[in-house]
Amino acid sequence: MHHITMEHRHLRGTALLAGAVLLIAGCGGLGKMNKYAETIKYTVDPNPLIVQGDTVAVNIRGNFPGKYFYKKAQVELTPTITYSGGETPLKMAGFQGEKAAGNYTVIPYETGKDFTYSDKVAYTPGMEQSELMVKILGKQGNKEKPFDPVKLADGVITTPYLVMSDDKVLLDKDAFQRITQHQQALTLNYYVASDRMLPGEERDQDVKDLQVFLKANAKNEKVAIRNITIDAYASPEGEVNMNEGLANKRDEAAKRWTMGQMVRNKYTNAKNDSLYMLNPRGEDWAGFKAAMEASSMSDKDLVLRVLQMYPDVNKREQEIKNMAATYNEIREDILPKLRRSEIVVNYERIGHSDEELTAMSKTMPDSMTVEELLYAATLTDDLNEKLRIYKETERIYPNDHRGANNVGYIYMMQNKLADAEAEFSKANGIMDNPISTNNLGVCARLKGDRKKASQMYSKAMSAGPEVKYNQGIIDIQNGNYGSANSNMSGMNTFNAALAKMLGGDAAGAQRILEASADKDTAMGHYLMAIIGARQGNGDMVRNNLGMAVQKDPTLADKARKDLEFRDFKDNLGI
After folding, report:
1. What is the CATH number of domain 161-174+364-478?
2. Which distant-in-sequence residues (6+ apart) come within 8 Å of 308 by Cβ?
3. Would strands 74-83 and 86-89 be described as parallel, antiparallel, or unpaired?
4. How would you write 494-563 as a 3-class SS string?
5. What are phi and psi of 490, to 5 degrees?
């Protein structure tokens, strides 16, 4: 829509020239062609010109009228962008009469002819205040005559260069958990068909470990026992019903034993029944199978085949007992280990408070885990203090890439691009990772290497939506507004609004900008004024330019020169 309305405006202006039907004799000369050159029609799209992807494209639809083009003449049209201090010519387009010698496009004398022209040139800053002229050189035989130049359009709109460098540099996160879950486990074994522990059980290392744990943490406020689960089993021998009852008995016996240990160490909740979760499991055929698979018995495969063949446990037990020699071996080596209770103490270890971590990071950082250090850095807003903690992380944990990456992140916040880039490279050297790769892409773009930055971003997409946003900035710079809109989808920022507007959706751009944190900045108001201009809303232009200039007085001069406001020149309110 934007180009069409401008084109219509152009049709009403002086640059689009249409004259009366001419009666230039077939034997006329260059002088007459110059005199009536104003009858050549030109329609320029876009009008005004606009920079896109660092280039300015010029598209012209033109028409030579009937009875204008002398049959032996040639005309060379050279669209040229002129500005203070210089000019930039585009490619020349040549035309000739029906009887002229040459290879230019032939224009019939009687009917005339339409023509189209397209070219683009690299943008230079001088073009911000410029005009598109067409220079015309007439030729006939060995004669040449420059015709009067004709202004075709104003140019160049530079709105795409409003793009902000708000590239998203990523901090690598900590995995700090103040409350962590832990377990202390042990196994108690019993006599056959009994809930009485085997002699010497309490001398086993796992029992000793539990006793040490309970003694050490009875008064430790940073250790909280949440529950104790007890799974009790019977070995698969004898009556199934009896074994289920036996598992129940062993569960209760294990509970009494554990409760005794808790009472001895003066735990206040030792006799609280809800602390203990009993799970009598009955006959342990799964444990039997696992133990058989791990054994080196000669008839192991035969026993395992019996387990597979007979789902009925009584039949299964009888078949195994029929293998007399093997069963004796099973009774001695396998079954005793299955007559057991498994006790698991589930507890939480409560880590240091924020205040403790902050103090430790200053006085004893070497005693902290990498997660504690990374988390401690988030507890301050002081960039230099963050940097100090991240540097300590880098020193104490040189094999964790997050320290180096986060040092680089702070350097970026401090505008130390070279230092930041070195840290991101170091982080990727420790472990190639998408977060540092994204950050290296940002460094590349800020240094002007969009191609390298895009390559980095394509590798880093798993780091999050910020990477797509960063690619969107490059898309704006490259003039790929559709891709920019896609990559910035869901992000309400100045750049996302700019991309939406440049892609032709001013109303959509307005919605994005109104939802952004940038809307009340000087440039936010300036962009909103442009959005207003593209919607033909004079009040929106005037109000927002007023607020923009209030926040940044230098924008007044920019606005007066900005072709976005060409239709509001007399009513800018600044």
Report:
1. 1.25.40.10
2. none
3. antiparallel
4. HHHHHHHHHCCCHHHHHHHHHCCCCCCCHHHHHHHHHHHHHCCCHHHHHHHHHHHHHHCCCHHHHHHHCH
5. 90, -10
DSSP state of 20: P
Helix (H) / strand (E) element for 279: namely: strand 276-283
3-state helix, strand, coil in the chain (%, to 5): 50, 20, 30
- CA gap 562, 566 in Å, rounded: 7
Q: Which of 489, 440, 484 is nearest to 460 (CA)?
A: 440
**What amino acid occupies position 13?**
G
Q: Report which of 138, 18, 4, 13 is spatially closest to residue 78, judged by C-alpha positions.
A: 138
**Separation of alpha carbons 197 and 188, rounded Å:** 7
Q: What is the pLDDT of residue 572?
A: 83
Q: Which residues of the chain have pLDDT under 50?
A: 1-27
Domain 2-157 annotated CATH 1.10.287: no
Class of domain 179-350: alpha beta
* Residue type for position 473: I
Are 56 and 79 in contact, with CB atoms under 8 Å apart?
no
- Which pLDDT does position 10 carry in this prediction? 34
Round to whole Å and give the CA distance between 251 and 232: 5
Domain ranges of the chain: 2-157, 161-174+364-478, 179-350, 492-574
DSSP states along 92-148:
-EEEE-TT--SSSEE--TTT-EEEEEEEEEE--GGGGSEEEEEEEEEEETTEEEEPP
Supply 447's token pair: 């240094």
| Rounded CA separation 374/370 (Å) | 6
Residue range 354-368, pLDDT digits in tens: 999 999 999 999 999
- Give 549's contacts (C-beta < 8 A, 6+ positions apart): 522, 555, 556, 559, 574
Model pTM above 0.85: no
Residues contacting residue 246 through CB under 8 Å, at least 6 positions apart: 193, 194, 195, 234
